[in-house]
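Following the same procedure, backbone shapes were mapped to integers, as reproduced here:
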Amino acid sequence: MIPRRFGHTGTLSSDGQKIFIFGGLINPYDLKLTNDTINLAVLGIETLKWTRPIISDLELGPNTCLADHSATLYNDFLIFAFGYQNYNLSNHIYILDVKNEAYHWVRTIARINLQLKGNITISNHSNSKNLQSSDPQGEIPMWVIVFLSISGFVFIVFAGMATLVFLQGNRKKAVKDDGRK
């Protein structure tokens, strides 16, 4: 079981067998970013069991918790964009390779061929590997991924701001009500 949280992302795996939970905050009244939410949690759909995979190349991933970010799955890559880190807006994009449950952060997706049929070259330090798409008709152009990531981020930021305004209004009302008694 993972701790309850908000401001996280949940992303369905390409095979529909796992949900990846990443980031977020633990307590809505104490907006501290905790290390517990830095880690990835994976829910097996069929077993309904949680796992905490070990992620390699940690220096390429976020070094503090990421909250109110967006997440998109592209082939075997979870792409986390923007959000909050250390109480500041983040302009970082992180890419996690989840292929074959060998989780590791990668620095770049060096070249993406946006044609319906083609290869994707992934660079991680000095290692490069070509991945052949198993479903060439199902590939999504990069501009669509970027647009959806940014749109999701904007929505999450506005939802988070509305939640904070609502919570602050309730606190002020509670303080006024306590003063009247």
Summary: The chain has one domain: 9-180. Residues 9-180 form one domain.
